[in-house]
Amino acid sequence: MIRERSALPDARRVVVKIGSSSLTGGDGRLDVAALRALVDVLAARRAAGTEVVLVTSGAIAAGLAPLGLTSRPRDLATAQAAASVGQGLLVARYTEAFATHGLRVGQVLLTAEDTIRRGHYRNAQRALDRLLGLGVVPVVNENDTVATEEIRFGDNDRLAALVSHLVRADAMVLLTDVDALYDGPPSRGARRIDEVHGPGDLEGVVVTGRGSAVGTGGMVTKLASVAIATGSGVPVVLTSAAQAEAALAGAPVGTWFSATGRRVPTRMLWLAHAARTRGRLVLDDGAVQAVVVRRTSLLPAGVTEVHGSFEAGDPVELASAAGDVVGRGLVAYGSDELPGLLGRSTRELLAERGVGYDREVVHRDDLVLVNAPR
Ligand SMILES: Nc1ncnc2c1ncn2[C@@H]1O[C@H](COP(=O)(O)OP(=O)(O)O)[C@@H](O)[C@H]1O
Ligand SMILES: N[C@@H](CCC(=O)OP(=O)(O)O)C(=O)O
Predict the structure, then answer these.
(1) CB 319: neighbour CB atoms within 10 A?
(2) Which residues hold substrate (predicted)?
(3) Ligand nearest to the CA of 56
(4) Complex ipTM, two decimals?
(5) Has residue 255 got a pLDDT over 60?
(6) Is residue 211 within 6 Å of ligand 1 at its C-beta?
């Protein structure tokens, strides 16, 4: 494991994420010179023996000029159209730029779903591993064209953290338009933060969710991304694209976030940090105890209320009668069917409804605890 930034040159595999703000000029359009400069740095790193996965934004920005748009569209359908046109152009630029270094790229478009559904993430994991094994540089972006408002990340920061986990990266490098995390929005007087070793080091730090005109999420989604990565064993460097070379060389630039936790299953990571839940199940006190303290699965007998509209396999919140959210889980029944099963024992349900109805509402392998109840 990489424990300090000076060890970064020894990383076997890194994920580098570049945001829209670093790939666009003042006119909001794709800055091809900036893209080429990044590729030069990544190709050099690759030649020095580190496998590189690039998570890149910029599809929407690249789609603006061809569609005659002057600013980032606000409505989802136009943003998706711009991403559709722009993604092809973006990857073409990367393909050309990496080719000048004798490297091939492979486009990988992911949705949040791909990191949660078992079949999907295994598939993505296999494809990424094979690309790397073949010496290809995977170029990853969110699949904007098919991602709906409910399930999309919108920003690539959290996607990059999940990709880092998926490919078992030794480190993640987040490149943006500021050279580091500051203790407040970077204006006069804000202080650069050199190293963060845990949430305590972020106390008093003010971050805003407003990004640049072209980026989304600002520093808020970057810190959410950092929490996902470091909490599951991947250290992070956050800096500007201009410092990418120095950061990968382990120089003391940007902000270094050391890993705080150990690797957990990918789906669990997504459930804990990224999933937008589709509903809420209210648990009686006995069920809260069973799930939180004894870490058992949730059975129909312990559920008292069902809220929201969801299908089997969707993420839902688990709450106590007092309204505290105690966990999140993938529910095994849809919201149409579940209310008819509440308070019933699995034995009764099996006898009455047949095989399969003795299954848990949320299996313990599909459940993460969020907060202890009051
Ligand atoms: N505490 C902070 N430290 C550094 N930058 C911050 C902070 N709070 C807000 N920001 C803003 O976050 C912006 C980067 O976010 P964003 O525009 O979404 O970038 P990207 O397109 O690279 O994802 C910076 O331009 C900066 O102004
Ligand atoms: N998938 C989108 C990226 C969304 C976005 O702006 O992300 P970011 O610049 O990382 O805040 C695109 O390629 O335009």
Answers:
(1) 20
(2) 57, 144, 156
(3) 2
(4) 0.94
(5) yes
(6) yes
